[in-house]
Amino acid sequence: MRVVVSIGGSVLAPDLDPERVAAYAEAIERLVTDGCEVGVVVGGGGVAREYIETARDLGANEVELDRLGIGTTRLNARLLIAALGDRANLAPATDYEEAGAALRRDEVAVMGGVTPGQTTDAVAAAFAESVDADLLVYATSADGVYDADPNADPDATQFATLSPAELVEVVLPMSRDAGASAPVDLLAAKLIDRAGIRSVVLDGTDPTAVVDAVLRGDHTGTDVVPVDADEPSRWAGNR
């Protein structure tokens, strides 16, 4: 089973916590031990936002800010690579071909951002499409996709299951707001819809949640299921 895991920077390394990074490395190693090919895309998190805000105050333009964010995602990716040791590629992949080549070498392919104007949400979806991944998992700070921001609306309702097209419809109005509340951005949703990628959006605060979702399909988040898609065969035997 080939899986791409997108890990938010604040999920992977809150306050640059080495124990959390080590726990994520252990979770990924568990997936590899169980026969999965694993690609990982790491976000920038709070550290990236701090750098971007400072650079914006200094007059940097949006492309410069994006490049600063990309650099931070790659620093976070290096933290995970350090924890994975020789299981991972030596340095964060800088494009999809490089990441795919790492998978073909039976390495955990770790990467951060790629190009200005594209979030790591979208990078993960494009990476998953480029390697024909069986599953894409978004490990976020939110427990799935909601019809409104659950932090602002106590009546927000979580979606248990969405089709990729429905995900686009849900994310579209949220993407228009500053500080968008959707756990997956609009471009990522459109790429998931285009490629028909089976996806899961879940709370990644506990790295074992990713293991349970990948190996058994067990989670409390949101399943994004393409029309007429079959459930991964390994889930039936592991539940």
Automatic annotation (TrEMBL):
UniProt keyword Kinase present: yes
Protein's UniProt name: Uridylate kinase
Pfam family, one: AA_kinase
Domain Aspartate/glutamate/uridylate kinase per the UniProt entry, residue ranges: 1-202
Top-level taxonomy: Archaea, Methanobacteriati, Methanobacteriota, Stenosarchaea group, Halobacteria
Any one GO biological process: UDP biosynthetic process
Acetylation recorded as keyword: no
Entry's EC annotation: 2.7.4.22
Gene coding for it: pyrH
EC class name: transferase
Regulation: Inhibited by UTP.
Pathways involved: Pyrimidine metabolism; CTP biosynthesis via de novo pathway; UDP from UMP (UMPK route): step 1/1
Coiled-coil residues: none
Assembly behavior: Homohexamer.
Originating species: Halorubrum ejinorense
Known catalytic reactions: UMP + ATP = UDP + ADP
Molecular function as annotated in GO: ATP binding; UMP kinase activity
Family the entry assigns: Belongs to the UMP kinase family.
